[in-house]
């Protein structure tokens, strides 16, 4: 399966939930989901009620689209969560929240996860002072997320911070200044996800 490159607003309409895939645009009247909440495609009025399998599948697809990951990546996260101690669904969401591109976005350094992923992949982001260009890098408690000492890097992040109006979650602390940085103060939990998610539905689907 290749990465989806079409209009991302269709994903929100398909999942019946705003996934904030286009940054600040999702908070304005220009948001396509606000104007059309029916699923994309022709003859949507003929589609009946979702089956039990369909409900479970849509929940999994919603999480995949939200974090911008593919099926194989998602399966690896689920396998790790299943082998870990504790509630599988909550562990799964914690692992996804610990992705570096997600943390960069939640800190406000990127207006969307796609923009944050681009920042990471282009080498603008550092972890504990070392450049990391792997968007799936897993952050740990005590890590310091910074920006590379380069004019272009600082300008990109400062522009995002100037426009961003979303609150930083409790598991992160952002230090603003000429060199903004973020600190991981605890591991994220399922409750820290900014969209409504029912992890148990995903576990029931992937455990079959």
Give an overview of the whole structure.
The protein has 208 residues and is of the alpha+beta class. It folds into two domains: 9-96 and 194-206, Orthogonal Bundle (Ribosomal Protein S4 Delta 41, Chain A, domain 1); 99-184, RNA-binding S4 domain (Structural Genomics Hypothetical 15.5 Kd Protein In mrcA-pckA Intergenic Region, Chain A). 42% of the residues lie in helices and 8% in strands. The protein has nine helices and five strands. It has a five-stranded antiparallel β-sheet. Strand 1 (125-127) and strand 2 (130-131) form a beta hairpin. The radius of gyration is 18 Å and the shape is globular. The chain starts with 8 loop residues before the first helix and ends with a helix. The model has no long low-confidence stretch (mean pLDDT 83).
- State the CATH class of the largest domain: Mainly Alpha
CATH superfamily of the largest domain: Ribosomal protein S4/S9, N-terminal domain
Number of domains: 2
Radius of gyration: 18 Å
Q: Strand content of the residues, in percent? A: 5-15%
Low-confidence region ranges: none
Largest sheet: 5 strands, antiparallel
Tally of helical segments: 9
Say what the CATH topology of the largest domain is.
Ribosomal Protein S4 Delta 41, Chain A, domain 1
Strand order of the largest sheet: 2-1-3-5-4
Helix content, binned percent: 40-55%
| SS class | alpha+beta
């Amino acid at each position: 399966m290749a990465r989806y490159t079409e209009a991302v607003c269709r994903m929100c309409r398909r999942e019946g939930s705003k996934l904030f895939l286009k940054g600040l645009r999702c908070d304005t009247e220009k948001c396509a989901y606000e104007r059309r909440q029916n699923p994309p495609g022709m003859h949507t009025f003929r589609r009946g009620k979702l089956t039990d399998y369909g409900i479970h599948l849509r929940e999994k697809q919603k999480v995949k689209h939200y974090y911008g990951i593919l099926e194989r990546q998602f399966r690896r996260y689920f396998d790790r969560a299943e082998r870990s101690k504790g509630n599988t669904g909550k562990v799964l969401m914690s692992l996804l929240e610990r992705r570096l591109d997600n943390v960069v976005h939640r800190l406000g350094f990127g207006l969307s996860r796609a923009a944050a992923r681009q920042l990471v992949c282009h080498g603008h982001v550092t972890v504990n002072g070392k450049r990391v260009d792997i968007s799936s890098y897993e952050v740990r408690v005590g890590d310091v997320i910074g920006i590379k000492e380069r004019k272009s890097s600082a300008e990109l992040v400062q522009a995002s911070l100037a426009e961003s109006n979303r609150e930083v979650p409790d598991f992160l602390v952002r230090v603003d200044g000429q060199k903004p940085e973020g600190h991981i103060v605890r591991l994220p939990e399922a409750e820290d996800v900014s969209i409504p998610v029912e992890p148990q539905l995903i576990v029931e689907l992937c455990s079959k």
